[in-house]
Design goal:
Blueprint lengths: L2 H16 L4 E4 L3 E5 L11 E4 L7 H11 L8 E5 L2 H6 L1 H6 L3 E11 L10 E5 L3 H17 L4 H18 L1 E8 L2 E11 L2 E9 L8 H15 L4 E7 L4 H7 L3 E11 L1
Parallel strand pairs: 3-4, 9-10
Antiparallel strand pairs: 1-2, 2-3, 4-11, 5-10, 5-11, 6-7, 7-8, 8-9
Helix pairs in contact: 5-6
């Protein structure tokens, strides 16, 4: 399977997640997804750009402004199916007050070649105490990034609202019985998506993230998924950890945001 096909699979996961929005507005260039329950969240209220219209990026922004004119949504967010098209209009978007955002798409086959922590137990977290632990850890991780309480609450709301509908399975990593990290797996054979990889600050540098990723890949294989996919910030350090676990870059996912 070539890298273009793998990158398209990543984009498809992105698209399906955003299609869970409460309403859609079709346009000449793609679709605007709206979900005013989560008005502060970019991924819940955005324009999905399938192609650049003849009128250029100004048409996209005008349609976006019109769609959210009477809504509580104050940001303007765009995600492009084609990263090269996004890069091509970057200067135009900057003139309209947008900043670029970019994720690195990565993929691998099989299990990571790494040493796992035998003291870490991975439990499913759809219900019961493990579900409560997943929620607490995920909210704490978002709060640690400096988000406001409103944004933290809405991030959890989006995840909780959509994860079950698309088949995302949450897990909690326990170190000697104490909740220490989260990870999610979304299987759509032959691909599986890994997300929500977070280790509590008190438990870092103990192999928890690597153990969680190993277990996520194992469960993906059990679900008959040959390829495991994920994205990470293009300019951040986690991509180096993923490389050591056998993940290779297959492309980029690009967009723009104006606050």
């Amino acid at each position: 399977m070539d890298t273009d096909e793998l990158c398209r699979a990543v984009v498809e996961f992105f698209r399906i997640w955003r299609e869970q929005a409460a309403s859609w507005v079709p346009t000449s260039w793609g679709t605007i997804y709206r979900d005013e329950r989560f008005a502060a969240i970019h991924q819940a209220n955005l324009g999905w750009v399938a192609s650049i219209p003849e009128e250029g990026s100004a048409k996209i922004v005008a349609d976006l402004d019109e769609a959210f004119r009477d809504s509580p949504v104050r940001h303007r967010s765009l995600l492009f199916e084609d990263a090269e098209e996004a890069y091509g209009v970057q200067e135009d978007m900057a003139r309209q007050g947008f900043r670029p955002v970019a994720d690195l798409a990565m993929a691998k086959v099989g299990l990571p070649a790494c040493i796992v922590n035998p003291d870490v137990e991975i439990r499913r977290a759809e219900e019961g105490a493990a579900a409560d632990d997943f929620r607490v850890l995920k909210i704490a991780a978002d709060a640690a990034l400096g988000y406001t309480p409103q944004v933290v609450g809405e991030l959890w709301g989006v995840w909780h609202d959509r994860s079950g509908r698309v088949g995302m399975r949450p897990y909690v990593a326990y170190l000697n019985g104490t909740p220490a990290g989260t990870i999610s797996v979304w299987a759509r054979p032959p691909f599986a998506w890994i997300d929500d990889v977070e280790t509590h600050p008190d438990f870092r540098l103990r192999g928890i993230a690597r153990t969680m990723i190993f277990e996520a890949c194992r469960r993906a294989a059990s679900a008959r998924c040959e390829w495991v996919l994920l994205t990470t910030d293009l300019f951040d350090t986690p991509k180096e950890m993923y490389r050591t676990l056998g993940f290779e870059p297959v492309g980029e996912v690009r967009g723009f945001v104006r606050e």
